[in-house]
């Protein structure tokens, strides 16, 4: 049984560490804020100029002036601070954010990431993803393992090489999908490694839905899966 979106976010939250400054991307990554371990102090940072975001507001308690970079209403904390977008990107580009959790349309086996546009479709802009993948210490991608193609068939999103415009080259450290968890040796020759499976999912299930080459390292076992 594959992980749900919430379970994927919960697994991503395991990558948080006490004292981290973290940027959450649009989509599934925003759900990670619901699973910050109790007692852990994590500061959530947003490109639009907010550090220390609280949980999503209850219905009827929304403040339209308090939004994250994805234009979702959020809440503030006693420790929240506000600043310009320029200062926010200075934090990101200066390497002061420990972890970014992003969505993606495609990830290549060498860590290349495509998550900002599909040619021919209107986009509002590239957002902050290109800065995040270049300036943040660790990049984790959370996404569905496959996407529905034009003919209705499911197409893999983990590829040998990305076919969509790149957000960054050799930038992804970890990929969490509904089928499992992969690590990527983005600066070396270790490639992509399957390190965890969702309950009820087999290695064969993953192979059938993956174009990228990867090794399997579940516990002590390691074998090539071309």
Automatic annotation (TrEMBL):
Biological source species: Enterovirga aerilata
Protein name, as recorded: CoA transferase subunit B
Upper taxonomic lineage: Bacteria, Pseudomonadati, Pseudomonadota, Alphaproteobacteria, Hyphomicrobiales
Family: Belongs to the 3-oxoacid CoA-transferase subunit B family.
NCBIfam families: pcaJ_scoB_fam
Gene Ontology MF terms in the entry: CoA-transferase activity
Pfam families: CoA_trans (PF01144)
Keyword Transmembrane helix recorded: no
InterPro entries: 3-oxoacid_CoA-transf_B (IPR012791), CoA_trans_fam_I (IPR004165), NagB/RpiA_transferase-like (IPR037171)
PANTHER family: KETOACID-COENZYME A TRANSFERASE (PTHR13707), SUCCINYL-COA:3-KETOACID COENZYME A TRANSFERASE SUBUNIT B-RELATED (PTHR13707:SF57)
């Amino acid at each position: 049984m594959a992980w749900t979106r919430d379970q994927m976010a919960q697994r991503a939250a395991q990558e948080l560490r006490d004292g981290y400054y973290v940027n959450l991307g649009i989509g599934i990554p925003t759900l990670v804020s619901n699973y910050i371990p109790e007692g852990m102090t994590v500061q959530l940072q947003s490109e639009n100029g907010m550090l220390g975001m609280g949980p999503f507001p209850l219905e009827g308690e929304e403040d339209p002036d308090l939004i994250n970079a994805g234009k979702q209403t959020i809440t503030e904390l006693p420790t929240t601070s506000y600043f310009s977008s320029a200062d926010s990107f200075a934090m990101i580009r200066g390497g002061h954010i420990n972890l970014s959790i992003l969505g993606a349309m495609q990830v290549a086996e060498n860590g290349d990431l495509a998550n900002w546009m599909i040619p021919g479709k209107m986009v509002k802009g590239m957002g902050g993803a290109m800065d995040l993948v270049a300036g943040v210490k660790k990049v984790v991608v959370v996404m569905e393992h496959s996407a529905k193609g034009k003919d209705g068939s499911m197409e893999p999103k983990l590829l040998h090489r990305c076919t969509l415009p790149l957000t960054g080259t050799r930038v992804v450290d970890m990929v969490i999908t509904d089928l499992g968890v992969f690590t990527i040796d983005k600066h070396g020759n270790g490639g992509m490694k399957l390190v965890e499976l969702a309950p009820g999912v087999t290695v064969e299930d993953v192979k059938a839905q993956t174009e990228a080459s990867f090794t399997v390292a579940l516990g002590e076992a390691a074998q090539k899966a071309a």
